[in-house]
Amino acid sequence: MVHRDRHDIVIEILRKTSSRAYSKTLIMSNVGLSYAQVQKYLRKLLEEGLIEANSERSYKTTKKGLEFLEKCSQCILFKWDK
């Protein structure tokens, strides 16, 4: 298993939910998180306004989240290992 830091996990969640809304279960399986981990990350991303929850309890990246992804892609360190 590859160790990922918080930044990598946040980026992965935001990328997954940028194209369409994902349920908590789909985020867990696609990003490879436990239930406790996904709860913690979704709570923080909601608090920061980077994702939003819809009425079906699915999550989607907000405009602020997309701007965050764009800024991260411009960072030279973001491309360090690619």
Number of domains: 1
Identify low-pLDDT runs.
none
Strand content: 5-15%
Per CATH, the class reads Mainly Alpha
Largest sheet properties: 3 strands, antiparallel
Radius of gyration of CA atoms, rounded to a whole number: 12 Å
Q: Which strand order spans the largest sheet, edge to edge or round the barrel?
A: 1-3-2
Roughly what percent helix?
55-70%
CATH fold title: Arc Repressor Mutant, subunit A
**Overall pLDDT metric:** 89
Question: Judging by the overall fold, what is the CATH architecture?
Answer: Orthogonal Bundle
Full CATH superfamily name = Winged helix-like DNA-binding domain superfamily/Winged helix DNA-binding domain
Order of helices and strands: HEHHEEH
Total number of helical segments?
4
- Structural shape: globular
What's the number of extended β-strand segments? 3
Content-based structural category? mainly alpha
The end-to-end span amounts to: 18 Å
